[in-house]
Amino acid sequence: MTNPSNIFIGGASRGVGREIAKYLTAQNFKIKALLRTADTAAELEAIGIQTVLGNALNMSDVERAILANDRIYAVISTIGGLPQDGEKADFLGNKNLIDAAVKAGVQKFILVTSIGTGNSVVAMPPQALEALRPVLIEKEKAEQHLIASGLTYTIIRPGGLKSEPATGNGILTEDPRIIGSINRADVAQLVVRSLISDSVNNKILSAVDRNMVYPGQPEFVELSLDQ
């Protein structure tokens, strides 16, 4: 795989998306980010990110951002909401990004969702599952839309997210039974490595810190990103 140059990020204003944007710009990738508000635009532009104001729930905004002059190599999306939020971007926002990516002919789409989505529902404690169910349903719809799109995809489902510095112990596994915690910065590192690895193409992966796996988990196989 050739090294990607132009990367589009949905969700770069906060959390994992912002960490991804920081890692990619530090490695001299050319980044374009869709922002719903201008609050973080100056900060992102200061580190070399091109920002486009628009709402992922509005298809015309998304197409204006993705179908611009510079061809986008890959799209990374971390967009989503909380159960108490209004109209959720977890499905519709991601659907718009996926559909625009198909039109743009991008070569890879990385979608960050959550453990508890799809078949990883078996990993979730019942109380947490009940609280997050509305969001997880929307995330699963987004995953299925991406799988059916024909794009080369990687779906990464992080466990419980923490805001500490990266430990370097983040791992990916195809085993949907696994659950644990992981720092946002480590998720970002895994996403960036997945961008240029063929071993994760068309796979759905859970992401945890190998030292933060919850007690009582079955043995599992880590996926190598070195291929």
Automatic annotation (TrEMBL):
A Pfam match: NAD_binding_10
Cross-referenced SUPFAM superfamilies: NAD(P)-binding Rossmann-fold domains
Leader sequence residues: none
Record domain NAD(P)-binding: where: 11-195
Domain of life assignment: Bacteria
Protein name: NmrA-like family protein
Organism field: Cylindrospermum stagnale PCC 7417
